[in-house]
């Protein structure tokens, strides 16, 4: 056996790794190895735990009514806030508007995001991919409020669009402060989210499958319908879920592009918390919104299965 | 020699005039309060919640800067909306924490809610209260949990270009088909409920028992597709040519006019809502900070501070002897006598506090339907 030279030293990287391993062993000894999985999900548990604590507080608040003589919540619990919310025509209108808005936004966003993501993945020209990425990310870096203000400037009565229309003799028209304007603003806001969620799913589809479909006689439409879309389902479902839940709970776009008459549920909750100081009713509405969002996600899992999101489920 | 002549720079001139102004303003203050040896330790700063734009500019010029000049205490203006700071202050007091602000510049109605909840300090011992009019006293509350500092009017602001025959004389102008989609109200209807009651054929004495005429009139206005927003929205909408008519506080209309927007305002025959804003201090402050916060409010009640602050806002104050800004002399939105105030619509704070949530909800129900 050859002798180790006296001046032999292990490489620096090895020694560093040994040091880190020794330190890790001190912080988390090997005997605790069976619990390592729990350690890794501790941050998530803390986060969810805080959320649950907040929800418990909100649930407690939702069961207390406001006494307008003292502006204090009642000592006793009751379901009065929920009854009031369910009996009120305005909250039903706002809830329906929010749900319809979320559905429309999701459909339109996915319809626009799919070809964009597909082009991003399949293009063979690097400059096109870069241009598509820049175009995608540039608005992504600008906050939602600033983007909404941008639309106020562009679509206003004296905005760029109306200015352009006036050049061809069209009188200025109201393009803002209505439901279509809100949906338009939300689709524009959600598009980058949807594209980013779809790209990994589309990139995972080998281009050869499309070539194979083509060699068997399928045109691009049939290939897209029978091959690409089914294989991209995890991306579509994931993007759809994110867009739907974000749209359902959106505040800024309805507030700014809706002109005050196109409130979503989040706007109604804000009003109760901050305008009328009725935190009980605001909490009841917030819980109902959480329930609606949860039911939506639950239904998607029920219909498509968690496996659709590539999470290892049976379906 | 030219060099011997003192040539003040622009900055030194400004500094000098600020010092003279502060001295003049403080001449009305009992010196003992600000210079007293036994005064508690000064905090480095006081945080005053304020509305932004021209509102905070006026407060800074009239009250905050001269106060800093005289005491050395910096004033930080927190521009969180009054409705948003309210739950934060309430939570801080309920949890025994130091509140996030020292002084809240608030609407009297909102402030009264805080007073009823018991989160406000009593300000009855402010010496300058002795020099104020009855407008400074909050109605229906014991002592001075709030000090009202001025009154304001929700006027009918309009673009003169849209009214070639002269100012609109009635709130019914909002129903003119040619203004469909070109009118604006506050998004909770504040300022409009009471004139709507009169315009709808009802009586002010029926408030709050029977406000059906107001809701009927508001339902007609809804058919006109009004824009609904907050103070800054009105200025933007007028500036961008989105609207011709709006129910807004005269200060906003005046500011838009100062910014070059062709705008005027009027008090229609049905009347306009008159209300007050005030200053109050949340409970839970350290003793020395409470002392200096009270000094700030006391200073805001001096004639000098009121004159500069309210010149900026274009609103009538609570100290006798103030001179109206030149552009507001004889303006009905700047009432200076009890008789002039009586010509406007003034509903008791108590009624407003108890019913405001319901009115806002009803307004929303109509507008969101």
Q: What is the share of helical residues of chain B? A: 40-55%
SSE run of chain B: HHEHEHEHEEHHEHEHEEHHHH
Query: Which band does the percent of strand residues of chain B land in?
Result: 5-15%
Oligomeric status: heterodimer
In DSSP terms (H or I, runs of 4 or more residues), the helix count of chain B works out at 13
Structural class of chain A: mainly alpha
Distance between the termini of chain A: 57 Å
The CATH class of the largest domain in chain B, by name, is Alpha Beta
Could you say which overall geometry of chain A the principal axes of the C-alpha atoms support?
extended
Largest sheet of chain A: 2 strands, antiparallel
What gyration radius of chain A follows from the Cα positions, in whole Å?
27 Å
Strand proportion of chain A:
under 5%
Written description of the protein model:
The complex is a heterodimer of chains A (about 325) and B (about 375). Chain A is an all-alpha fold. Chain A has one domain: MetI-like (MetI-like fold). Chain A is about 70% helix and about 0% strand. Chain A has a two-stranded antiparallel ribbon. Chain A is extended. Chain B has about 375 residues and is α/β, with parallel strands linked by helices. Chain B folds into two domains: about 10-150 and about 275-330, Periplasmic binding protein-like II (D-Maltodextrin-Binding Protein, domain 2, 3-Layer(aba) Sandwich); about 155-275 and about 340-369, 3-Layer(aba) Sandwich (D-Maltodextrin-Binding Protein, domain 2). Chain B has helices at about 10-25, 30-35, 55-70, 80-95, 110-115, 195-200, 210-220, 230-240, 250-260, 285-300, 305-315, 340, 350-369; strands spanning about 45-50, 75-80, 105, 145-160, 185, 225-230, 245-250, 265, 275-280. The longest helix of chain B is centred in the last third of the chain and has 20 residues, at about 350-369. Chain B starts with 9 loop residues before the first helix and ends with a helix. Chains A and B meet through helix 4 and helix 13 of A and helix 4, helix 5, strand 6 and helix 13 of B. Chain B: It holds the Pfam family SBP_bac_8. Chain B: It comes from Pseudogemmobacter humi. Chain B: InterPro entries: SBP, TAT_signal. Chain B: This is Spermidine/putrescine-binding periplasmic protein. Chain B: Keywords: Signal.
